[in-house]
Design goal:
This protein is an alpha+beta fold. The protein contains eleven helices and ten strands. It has a four-stranded mixed β-sheet with strand order 1-4-5-8, covered by helices on one side. A four-stranded antiparallel β-sheet has the order 2-3-7-6, with helices on one face. The chain has a two-stranded antiparallel sheet with strand order 9-10. The longest helix is centred in the middle third of the chain and has 37 residues. Bound molecules: flavin-adenine dinucleotide.
């Protein structure tokens, strides 16, 4: 067993960290304040080959592993979790769906410009009344000759207002329940397709989140992605990788929180001593560091299983559940170590806390992860998101 990253992985980590420190971190406060999505960063990420980390070179990607992807997520989220979340939705969800289910022609047409950063993608599963219970999808797609006609709306869609390419789930056969949900590619500019309300969020405010609205939206028959009725089944497979990325995203925030807390504790003096000398503060740092390491190991295990082609649904959910919850706890303790200074925007730790909470909600809540883990271990059937 080897717990070290390879030389290539260490270089990747260093490269992403340097990029994030130079181009992303200095602006994170302003983007958060303004709720501004920095599209230009995606162009730069594309130049670095980070918009299509896991996709083969023939589709404009970098051909890297899931472990590499986790490294990218961790380092980017350490600087700005909003930017990293937008990349996660673009890469693992939208592009991931096209890579998994798309025909050769669809991959060439849609995946390549996404992988190079020429285009931005979004992925629409969630609806007003279909969140954890995504099988309750109400958006419909009805075949009309050589076209599909889509009607409905999607809620909380990352990159909704900025994406060029959307993958959306819609019901094609209501009688078949979850097996009657199909996936479609819808391009920006298609008549009857628009972004709706932009959400005003607690955290990840540099990430665009909005509704998608489909009103008699006609798309060519060939925009069906994967087999008809397989949209939800494919979604579960896509989330297996997605959750490893979101776990690494949480880890990046946790890591940043631990770093600022450690440095603050060493510098802040009370009662004539650095607060780092007080055992109560040391205990917090020790527990935070232990959780960061435990999350890291769960993420690496899930990614390694995936990269070696082994079953990893339970392990992905364990990594996401643990890292997501740990990041909130660690950010909260980091804020406590900062005292009143943690509560004001002069220090980044309050942003880390706000951002971290999404890791317990997005791509399946913590409760849903527990269902996935328990059902996997108990061998119970039933498709849980
Ligand atoms: C910033 C942001 C970005 C997002 N990006 C995207 C995106 O790009 N694409 C997309 O499709 N979606 C996206 N989502 C949606 C996200 O995946 C959902 O919010 C999430 O799956 C939960 O659904 P919900 O909000 O409807 O909550 P609900 O499903 O209504 O859950 C409410 C509460 O009930 C609990 N609960 C529900 N069912 C059960 C159960 N069976 N057992 C126990 N507890 C249960 C939940 O855990 C939660 O605590 C995003 C959300 C946010 C906030």
């Amino acid at each position: 067993m080897n717990f070290d990253l390879s030389e290539e992985q260490q270089l990747l980590k260093k490269t992403v960290r340097e990029f994030a420190q130079a181009e992303v971190a200095p602006h994170a406060f302003a983007w958060d304040e303004a709720q501004d999505f920095p599209r230009q960063i995606f162009t730069k990420l594309g130049e670095l080959g980070l918009m299509g980390v896991c996709w083969p070179a023939e589709y404009g990607g970098s051909g890297m592993t899931t472990l590499d992807w986790a490294i990218v997520m961790e380092e980017l989220a350490r600087a700005d979790a909003g930017v990293a979340l937008s990349l996660a939705a673009h890469h693992s969800l939208c592009s991931g769906h096209i890579f998994l289910a798309g025909s050769e022609e669809q991959k060439k047409k849609y995946l390549t410009p996404l992988a190079t950063g020429e285009k931005v993608g979004c992925w629409g599963l969630t609806e007003n009344s279909a969140g954890s219970d995504a099988g309750g999808t109400k958006t419909t797609a009805v075949r009309d000759g050589a076209q599909w006609v889509l009607n409905g709306s999607k809620t909380f869609i990352t990159n909704g207002r900025v994406a060029d390419t959307a993958v959306v789930m819609a019901v094609t056969d209501k009688a078949k329940g979850k097996k009657g949900i199909s996936a479609f590619v819808v391009e920006r500019g298609t008549a009857g397709f628009r972004a709706g309300k932009k959400e005003n969020k607690l955290g990840v405010r540099s990430s665009d989140t909005s509704e998608l609205i489909l009103e008699d939206c006609r798309i060519p028959a060939e925009n069906l992605l994967g087999r008809e009725g397989n949209g939800f089944v494919d979604t579960l497979r896509i989330l297996d990788r997605g959750r490893i990325g979101i776990a690494a995203w949480s880890l990046g925030i946790a890591q940043a929180s631990l770093e600022v807390a450690t440095s603050y504790a060493l510098g802040r003096k009370q009662f004539g001593h650095a607060i780092a000398e007080f055992q109560a503060v040391q205990f917090k740092i020790a527990e935070m560091a232990m959780k960061v390491d435990a999350a890291q190991l769960l993420i690496w295990r899930a990614a390694s299983l995936r990269d070696s082609g082994r079953e990893h649904t339970v392990q992905s959910s364990m990594a996401k559940l643990f890292a997501g919850e740990a990041a909130v706890e660690i950010a909260l303790e980091a804020l406590q170590i900062h005292g009143g200074y943690g509560y004001v925007k002069e220090y980044p730790v309050e942003r880390y806390l706000r951002d971290s909470k999404l890791g317990t909600i997005g791509e399946g809540t913590s409760e849903v992860q527990k269902l996935v883990i328990a059902r996997g271990l108990l061998g119970l059937k039933g498709m849980v998101r």
